Structure formats: structure tokens, C-alpha cells
Amino acid sequence: MPAISHHNGMDEASFTAFADQLDRYVRDRLIPAEPRMIEANAVPADILTEMRDMGLFGITIPEDYGGAGLNVSQYVETIRRLAYAAPAYRSTISIGVGMVTSALKTGGTAAQKQRWLPQLAAGMIASFGLTEPGSGSDSAALQTRAVRTAEGYVLNGTKRYITNAPNAGLALIMARTSAENLPRNAHISAFLVPLDTPGVTVGKPDRKMGQAGATIADIIMDDATIPADALLGEVEGKGFEHAMRSLDNGRLSVAAASVGYARRALDTALSYATERKAFGEPIASFQLIQAMLADSRAELYAAECMIADACRLADEGRRTTIEASAAKMFASEMCGRVVDRCVQIHGGAGYLSEYEAERFFRDARLYRIYEGTTQILQLLIARNMLKEFAAGV
Amino acid sequence: MKILVPVKRVVDANVKVRVKPDQSGVELANVKMSMNPFDEISVEEAVRLKEKGVATEVVVVSVGPAQAQETLRTALAMGADRGILVTTDGPTESLAVAKLLAKIVAEEAPGLVILGKQAIDDDANQTGQMLAALLGWGQGTFASKVEPTADTVSVTREIDGGLETVELKLPAVVTTDLRLNEPRYASLPNIMKAKAKPIANKTPADYGVDVTPRLTTLKVTEPPKRSAGIKVKTVDELIEKLKNSGVIA
Q: Which residue intervals define the domain Electron transfer flavoprotein alpha/beta-subunit N-terminal in the entry (chain B) (predicted)?
């Protein structure tokens, strides 16, 4: 096992106090700010400042580096509560507190941790660059190159659909350090690239179906020179391993986001069903509406249990590829069904922008796609099952 | 100037309160508890006065069960400097709390005591007034603005039909109303820092105060359910309906 510090997180009383404050913050500030955010298609500056002050950017960063040192369960619980509000809020912090911090903690040198973790904890927005125009989850097709020179490395290539790219200060970029594909993806290395590096540009933000306020854009590297110590861990060929391990963690975050948003949609559907009348009574008294509510509640509970279990395993220091993938796959698909029922329960109103249901429907669609599509996760789960079977586990 | 802020642990404002089946009180088992919202406003005001350099220290005190420590921790995370927990498991009646606070004031010698105007559990709205009486201090209740000077404090009060501004000689007692400020959220970094702030554990006996209840609760009931009204077309019809229902003779 690599050396990972699995401390026990924050003491329970302090975490509970924080969770209470966060719930209140979500209810009193983040949800009321949603229309402003959607209008501007950006997290409002005052809210971003508050989120930094609340310490949300440092939840997973160890205390020694200015963070709160939450364990996986507490981190995922925080994300779930935050994700009751529109997805852009989570999106803004998620890459930094999720994949980038996780990669730095497990793979970074002492100097890299010292340089980046305090900045991330203080609110620097981060991006994670794996996907390219011609490759996503298939590492063999990865084109971005990092060529070793006397000064360090020269990066060339384009990263696509990169969350937070227009606002990020730091990106963890996967690039090949070997022209030919090597076993165990040893041709791929990870680089800590400040986005103000000469030769690095960010494309125009992509227009998208939902999740207003969350930005996605290309990161283009054209002879971008970075020092040798920007190589994560200062070891070549470990990039893909770090990326995949960080993704386990990122998947739990998307699973939690799915559960948080499904709760929001279900609460909204429940309250609408008790107010809206048809044939002289609230539609909640009709059994076909009740069936939709009950199915949603049961599935939400199942997803919550899966996430809690995967988090417990992660906190024990176990590799959770199957569990995190399964939780993400189930939770995001569940969220898709719940937001669909939310629209259905709203009837005609569910199709109108005046109500929130249609926004939930559009926003939630992404959960089934990023951090591994449902189909990639099916492959990953099955592949690991076959591997275990062959090894007699 | 030192500021003393009493805080109470109450049922969270967002919880739908239910009456116990035996009508002895409201259900508290497995119910989310939080700091009384008016007390949050008091803590916020005290912390702002400290940030402005008017106050030098903010001391928070709670009288209640051991779990009231969590309430004190929240106040410390908002920016108070230290806490005093007076543990008592029985009911906390206003007069007993006021007597305890008077003793604590004698020990701590604050320039200002800022309390919530009432706690949202029993809505008694009298602890601040009783404390001022016991101490013989001036009181500015239902404050929507608090401006201390070197030896006085100007308090704008929300009264029926408008605002009244009173000037009190320090030391004084102030009770806070909703519009005084918007309390901050305790941030994660400050929650962590609050762990290191001291809380002194006390009992009513330490202050020689008898907290035995002087009131007996006979019965707690839900407010009566309102039945649907009717619309009338004429004054005559209204009078007839009122006579029929026995409201007027």
C-alpha cells in the first residue's frame, strides 16, 4: 500500500456544528442566490467570497496545510449537504477538494504539498485535465505530450470539457511522457500547471444544457514550459495511477451530489403534491403520485446507504474502485429518475421555466456523464469483478 | 469593555414542535436543538463590537443541560472568546437564570450584558428585564441599534408604532430584536479554532443560587385548530350568523 494518511477526520461535535452551519448557509444564502447565479451564469462574487470564508475550499486539506482535514465520510457528507443547492456551487470547489487535493496528498512531494495545498485551502479554484478532443477514459489515445528539456518540460496539446478552467488557478494535467504506449499506463504523467503559465490558454466557456454557473472550457497548451518540479511526485509514469485513484474519490463526490440534488427535487415534488389540487383534493392523495414519491424515497435511501458504505471502506484505507463506481452509477441514475418524476408530478408546470422542476431535470443529466459515464463504470465494475475472480479473491 | 452574552439551547427554529402525549411539555427527544436565534443576534452584536475595537472580550454563558456546551462552542466559533457553562438538568426559569447571571456579572464585571429579547421555546421575554432589576442597571430592550460610547450606550428600541432611542449609563443590559443584525455563519476554520477556547464548567450551587422551579406547568396543548370561515353578503346576515353561533346575544 502507498503511504496514505488515513486520519480519523474532524471530531464529531465540531463536524456536526459545521454541518448545521452549512445547512443554514445553503438554505439562507445559496438557494436564494440561485436566480442571480443562473442569470449571470457565474457564481456571484459575494457568494464565492463567503464560500472561501466558510472554509469550503479546504475541507479535505490536512490541518497542517490550512484545511479542515475531513475524512472521506465527512467530506462526502459535506458535499451532499452543499449539493442540495444548485450544482455550480459544488462544482466550483469539487475539483480542488476532490481530485487535485487527493492527487497531491497521495502523490505530491513535500515541496508540492507545501506550495499548493495552502493556496487551494484558501480558495484557489482548480481543474483536472484528463479528457481530450480525441480521448476520454481511454488512456492509450491520450495525445497531450510533455517533453523533457533542460528547463523542465514542454507541454503541447488540448484538454477538453475541463470544469472550472475559466476560473482556475491550477490544473492537474495528464500528459504522455513516452511516445509509445507502455504497460500499466506508464506513458502518462501528471503535471501541476499554473494556468498563468505562458503558452497555456483557456478557450471560451462551452454553452451547455444545464448547471448554469458551472463553467467548462478547453485548456490549450502550446509550447508551455513548466519547471521539472511541476511533475507530480517528481516521478514519471505515475500520472494515470494518480488520476484513477483520485477518480474513486471524485466519483463519491458525484454520488453525493446526486443524492443531495435528488433530495432537493423530491422535497420540491412532495411540497408541490400537497399544494396542487385536482378533482378537489391535493394530488398527493392520489396513489399513482404516492407511488412516484415512495419509489423516489426508497431509491434515495439505497443510494445513501451505498455511499455511506463506500465512504467507510475508503476511511479504512481500502481501495474502493468497485464500490465508488457502483455508488456513483446507481446514485446518478437514481437522481435522473427522481428529477424525471419531479417533472411528472408537477405536470404541465414541470415543463415551465417558472418552476424549478425543469431546471433540476436539466442539471441532473450531467451526473450520469462526468467522472465516468454509467457505461464506463459498468465496464470498470465488471473488469474488476473478472480480475478478482481470476485472482480467486 | 467586557461584554457578557447569555445564550440558550432551544429547539431549532425550523423544527415543527409537537406536544407530548401526556401534555407535560413539548417533545424534545430526537429533536434538533440550536442556539436561540435572538441569542445568535446578541453574539453577533458583541463580536462586531469587539471587531470595531469597542469591546475587549466577549464572554458567553449558558444555563442548561451538558449539551448546552455545543451551543457555547457555536458562539465561540462565531468569535466569542470564552464560555461559562452552568449545568442544570431541570427547567430553567427566567428568575433563576437572572439570579445566576447576576452572580456571574458580579464576578466578571462586564460593561454590557447583551441578551436575546426572548427565547423561542417559552417566549418569556423577561430574563433581561429581571437581570437589570436585580443589578439595578439601566435596560434597553428590543434593540435594533446599539451604539456604545465611553460611559453610555445609545439603544434604538422597536416599540409599537415606531422607534424609541434611549441612552443608558454603563454598565447596562441590552436585549436584542430581530432587525439588529444578520448573524454570521460559523466558518469551518473558526469552528476548529473554537475547540481551543476555554469553557468553565459550573453548577448553580457554585453561585449559591436555588434554581428549584417556582412555577408548575399544568398542561401544554396545541393551539386550537381554526375551522373554516364563511362569507356573508349583508350586515343583517352577519348579525344573524353571530347571534345563531352565540357570539352575540
A: 23-211
